[in-house]
User: Fold this.
Amino acid sequence: MAWRGLHLMQAARLSLADSQICVKQDAGEVRLALEDIAWIVIDTPQATLSSALMSACMDAGIALVFTDERHTPSGLALPFHRHHRQGAIARLQLNAKDGVKKRLWQTIVRRKILNQAASISILDRDHAETLKEIARHVEPGDPENVEARAARFYWGRLFVDFVRDDDDDLRNKMLNYGYAVVRAGVARALVASGFLPAFGLKHDGAANAFNLADDLVEPFRPFVDVLAWKAFSDGTDKNGDLTLEDRRKMAGVLLLNGKMGDGKVSLLVAAEMAAASLSRALESEKPAFLELPELERDS
Assistant:
């Protein structure tokens, strides 16, 4: 079972050798078992991948994330669907009733806001109880856009002097990097469960190939927020660039733990469990079956 990621930030040549990922760098060669790897982040323009390795990664269900010249994740490669109930799951997804989808979105938004409350509590910020109260007012489909109201309240308490859409702010760069990695993990889990990620519950962008991933990723975002907050030092220039250490820390977000039911699992496993539970929720038309990760103090 895949349980780790590979983050490449220096020149490397990747190929397939004896059913293993062979990484050759100036310092030497490393081989990794394909079945152990869930995601690979190619964070350097000086990496080359053989077509045989690309094909093997797709067969193994490995998500490949590529970055641009600013080290911002810019692309994602996923395997074609190989689930044994591909057609049945796709029909469930495409034929889901609006009422069921609205209640699923309600569940997702509530958990996101509750996780935001947990994040500011973990970071010893005030007003976590206010966010919990806001979460209570989310209705099916969130017609009043309570999610946006909670977000405005949340960001003002999480960071000082912060604007979420300021692309020059280092904190946003760190958040976006982490979000892209966790989104890849969620998209990978959805594909493995037989879903068509282009068709969402709430998100429906015509040019977005990952609408469903953008739905399900929402409760995972506060985990990224806590990681970014801890990684960003008060003395750091907020207009600086992502460092190697920043990128290394944010690339490991899927290894953080979250509560699922009575136990704790990595976010990588939580994504797989959430995707599988979404299938059960759609099949039974019971949104309560949807399982999503809960953020706790020692996550």
